[in-house]
């Protein structure tokens, strides 16, 4: 079955031939961010299958995951990979992705998921917060028109995915009856996992492909990827990120209002080392 008609946008709608290559090709930091994101997004089918199994018996959520979410996430990967190939054709994307997949596929297991279905949905809200913030930042960073269009599409998808996971989270919170403290712990665990696994593995394999002579040079790795992370850190939409992270905690309005601004000042530390 084809899902093209149900996708809010398609790869074919992007005019890759009109990319202003000279406007972006020199930006190695942006290359690292785009390519690492394309690796993670292109591995979404494995994560989807883990989630579908985790929510066995919940037909509504399983159907959305397998027939909508997975296809949109994989399209993100295909579109980002196509963009990278067009602007940086000398980069062997397939070779880099295979190396990434060999490592990432081994750690992306169902054991990573929260035992509680509701808490796993809270954790999913964290992941969608991170991706929505990432693509909003990339959209702000670039002035290349096709990349601006692509990152806006993906950011909108990720915000919509967040809303869907959040609605299912509320359903399970009522069913399972867990408290705010457990939600907070699940949110914190997933933030730490994002920092230590997904983004680091992807960036490392982009680096290894670009700098094979420095594969074991940790200082060089930190120097090159640190610049990319600094670029992202400076453009993270702090207020949006904090609001999305706090929403599953369902805090009293006065408490949320009191902590939003202080947390916004350190929001970039939530997703970047």
What does this structure look like?
The chain is mostly helical. The protein has 12 helices and no strands. The chain has helices spanning 21-24, 28-42, 44-54, 59-87, 93-107, 117-141, 145-176, 180-210, 218-235, 238-246, 253-265, 268-271. Helix 2 packs across helix 9.
CATH superfamily name? Answer: Ribonucleotide Reductase, subunit A
Distance between the termini: 41 Å
**How much helix is in the residues?**
over 70%
What is the number of independent domains?
Answer: 1
User: Residue-averaged pLDDT, rounded?
Assistant: 91
Name of the CATH architecture = Orthogonal Bundle
Can you summarize the main beta sheet? none
Beta-strand residue percentage: under 5%
Compressed to H and E, one letter per element, the order equals: HHHHHHHHHHHH
Structural class based on helices, strands and sheet pairing? mainly alpha
- The number of distinct helices, counting runs of at least 4 residues, comes to 12
| The CATH topology | Ribonucleotide Reductase, subunit A
Low-confidence stretches: 1-5
What is the tally of beta strands?
0
